[in-house]
UniProtKB/TrEMBL annotation:
This is M20/M25/M40 family metallo-hydrolase. It comes from the Bacteria. Keywords: Hydrolase, Metal-binding, Metalloprotease, Protease, Zinc. Its cofactor is Zn(2+). Residues 195-283 form the Peptidase M20 dimerisation domain. It comes from Effusibacillus consociatus. The keyword Protease applies. Belongs to the peptidase M42 family. SUPFAM superfamilies: Bacterial exopeptidase dimerisation domain, Zn-dependent exopeptidases. The keyword Electron transport does not apply.
Amino acid sequence: MADVNEKRLVDRFLQMVQIDSPSSHEREMADYLKKELASLGFEVAEDDAGRDLLQTLGDMRGAETIRFAGNLIARKKGTVQEASPVLFAAHMDTVVSNKGVKASIQDGVIRTDGRTILGADDKAGIAALLEVAQIIQENRLPHGDLEFVFTIAEETGLNGARLLDKKNLRAKFGFVMDSGGPPNVVIGASPTEIDFSIKIYGKAAHSGVNPEDGVSAIAAAGHGLSKVQMGRIDEETTVNIGVIKGGEKTNIVCDYVELWGEVRSRNKEKLSWEIAKIQTAFAMACEKVGARFEMEEQQIYSGFQLTESDEVVQIAFEGARKAGMNPQLAPRGGGSDTNIFNAAGIPCVNLGVGASKDHTVEESVSVKDLVQASQLVLGIVETVVERAGAEVHR
Ligand SMILES: [Zn+2]
């Protein structure tokens, strides 16, 4: 396998984390990538997802000053006609701004000074992909059609991938470079997530004068909550009520409480069952105190479950072995762009880029993992060519 240029990879990663790109402010990052990808022989298109997203959020005020971008779709024509077109994806946005980031390397680990996030989620994934594109170019490695997709607004709910026109993609399968684990862990399963809101309507009354005329929405919420099992329900199911709001004054019987929560499971029946249990808990609680409630659910993304008999998993495994790693298939409790691509009929796994403690100021990534993520991608490109029956030049 061709060598990964560690210094170039790390330098480019450090250069990219200096570009501040919180969700919906990816303009500078997109411009940087357009330039890099063009020099690496890719044709790059940008879609209108950024503008569409701001419009769906219903507020275009200041849109001219918000430095938003669209998703980037970059294509490089294959040198091996018979090889399947492959998708590689990563997201350009970071969960929050990392303006003023001071990144340094100690003992082979890249981290910040503890004041900002690093941005390895997901710039580590982007760095690995660009390094591979450069290795392919400078060594004239044989490859099939490559589709690199860099999405916007992943961190605010997979919005870029959602708005991307997936029908335009030619890839038969894909690899998303956005998992926290080490590069040998191939994420082949992820839950479906349903978010819900519960509105409890009670009746206001003076707490000291005529409390018996009131119906406490807080009491109803309390009864209901005491019957809801939260946390990890089983190996593939979790429940969380993460927000509760209600009440105004201590001397008013509270007439309105709102709760928001989520259920995730890789098993759709269990998912419906947990939703039904929560609904029943609040129905009984409201009946007990004479309150009324409404519950609304919304599917945020749908899950996927791939196995070792799926081609995309086999290719990831073969690529990992070529890179000298021992691959493992694992599930992950979170959603990612991988969910969206799978739902659109493009089987995809999520690959580890080694970023840890992402979404915190302790976020870090090891140089070794960055290098291995690049080797894994190289291994995948090579595997796809081999599977097409072509000779790989080593
Ligand atoms: Zn991410």
